[in-house]
Design brief:
Length: 345
């Protein structure tokens, strides 16, 4: 099958790109990093043992908005008049696409500043003028409507505190906007079930270090959800409306980890109503199409040989993607064996 393409990650170290490749992700789309993006690009361009890497560099958020709370000094967008300069700067620094932030839930809950519609529109126009795909972080149905009406290409996350929103889903579909639901994050905010299922899967466990196992099964804070019913229903509504869905776990948020959590994300998409083959497309061809990556995402003559061989049929059982036999990035085989964990047998 084609190598997986992670549509939503946050990457800091080349080792995380190796960890992605270890689990069959041959391309990582980074939707904001707070460290040296040049270091990550260089690793992807010069090493065969890391996944390919494309990035938004940073995110467009207002002073005090979501993304500023992590203690990093980041460039913010003060208003619509600042949008052109912000986007021009990101493009000049090699950004492959543009990430903007609407944090309506945080704004309502604790007054966190969020971008207004005029600023969102100005950012979208500046991004599109430079042929950049524009993706908006959203937290509420209202955020989704604002972003779609401003002309974004995609939405990152499904809205919180609400299930199926048929009118919003139809609006998203009518504007041909893709959605990266990041269900794995909500899954991790419920309890440790999702991470535990990954850790206890014999197809994955041999490649999970003790540190990674603990990370996947230990709560790190964040909101606490009773269950994942509402996000699953919301994604099901998007699916029924015909919205193009992309797979990306948004790691390392919640209990998500680079590489391995992609397989839980595919499983959750199937739980939301997608057929296994549609979930596979969400992690391969759909991402390539949405981000205009015409050289990958499918197995065709002339495309990159980003491939993985799995045991079983993932078009019948989506968890067969976990039973990886071999992986190739751009035609070069990646040796997984040095990363196998010695468990004393």
């Amino acid at each position: 099958m084609p190598g997986l393409i992670n549509a939503h990650a946050h990457t800091r170290e080349p080792a995380q790109l190796t960890q992605s490749l270890l689990f069959g992700i041959t391309t990582v789309l980074d939707l904001a990093t707070f460290t040296s993006v040049d270091k990550l690009r260089e690793a992807a361009n010069t090493h065969d043992d890391v996944a390919d890497f494309l990035s938004a560099n940073t995110l467009a958020t207002p002073p005090g908005g979501h993304g500023t709370e992590y203690g990093f000094d980041i460039r913010t967008v003060k208003g619509p008049d600042d949008a052109e300069a912000f986007v021009a700067e990101q493009k000049s620094q090699g950004a492959n696409f543009l990430k903007i932030v609407l944090n309506g839930v945080r704004a309502e809950r604790n007054g966190t500043p969020t971008l207004d519609s005029a600023t969102v529109k100005a950012l979208v126009l500046a991004g599109h003028a430079r042929s950049m795909i524009v993706v908006a972080h959203i937290e509420s149905p209202e955020d989704a409507v604002t972003a779609v009406e401003a002309g974004v290409d995609g939405l990152a996350h499904i809205w919180r505190n609400s299930a199926d929103e048929p009118e919003v889903a139809r609006l998203i579909a009518s504007h041909d906007v893709f959605v990266i639901p990041t269900l794995s994050v909500q899954d991790g905010f419920v309890d440790a079930t999702g991470g535990t299922l990954l850790v206890e899967d014999d197809r994955l466990r041999p490649y999970l270090s003790e540190t990674l196992r603990e990370f996947l099964t230990t709560r790190k804070g964040g909101p606490k959800f009773e269950n994942i019913d509402q996000p699953i229903e919301a994604v099901g509504g998007l699916y029924r409306a015909g919205v193009k869905l992309l797979a990306g776990p948004d790691q390392p948020n919640g209990r998500t980890a680079h590489g391995v959590s992609m397989h839980r994300e595919l499983e959750l998409l199937v739980m939301a109503g997608l057929k296994p083959i549609e979930a596979l497309a969400a992690g391969t061809a759909n991402v390539a199409d949405a981000y205009r990556l015409s050289d990958r995402g499918r197995i065709e003559k002339g495309l990159r040989a980003d491939l993985m061989l799995v045991k079983g049929d993932p078009t019948v059982d989506i968890t067969a993607t976990r039973d990886i036999v071999r992986i190739w990035k751009a035609g070069v085989e990646f040796d997984r064996q040095p990363f196998a964990v010695n468990e004393g047998h």
